[in-house]
Amino acid sequence: MGQNTIDANGITIQTYTEILNDITNGTDSTPGWITIYGSDINLDSNSPDGQIVNLMALSKEDMLQFGVGIYNAFNPDLAVGQALDGVAQYNGITRKGGTYTQTQVVVTTNQSVTLNGNDQSASTPFTIEDGNGNQLYLITTVTIGSGTSTLNFQAANMGFVQIVQNTVTAIVTPQTGVLAVNNPSTPYNYGADQETDAQFRLRRQQSTAGLSTHKAQALYTALNNIVGVEQAVVYENNTGVSNSIGLGAHSIWFIVEGGTAQEIANMIYNYVDCCGMKGSTEVDIVQPVDGSLYPVYFDIAQQQVLQISLNIESLSGSAINNAAIQSYLLDNYTLGINEVADITSITALVRAYSSDLLVTFAGVSISAGSYTDSVKPSAVINYFVLLTGNILITNT
Question: pTM (2 decimals)?
Answer without folding.
Answer: 0.55
